[in-house]
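G., the chain you wanted modeled:
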Amino acid sequence: MSMLKREGWLVSRSAASHGAVDVFAARNGEILLVQVKSGRARVKKEELEELIAWGRHSNGVAEVWHFKGKGRLERRRVYGKSGGSG
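Predicted structure as tokens:
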């Protein structure tokens, strides 16, 4: 969340999230929806479908952020226009 705040996003997280969207962010009329995973965790098919639906219904960008360890972050866009989310 701090990464997004530094980039000027207004950020909120879904407390104790068990849903498809862990982080909601907005900046200059853009919406960013993020599912966060770490280590060996993987996005389940149902989570991915719901995340994409959130992106479609909000006209936003949906991404999966996978923290792989040693400070390495892999960002994967699963729905939305290219560019503009960071």
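DSSP finds two helices and five strands in the chain.

Shout if anything looks off.
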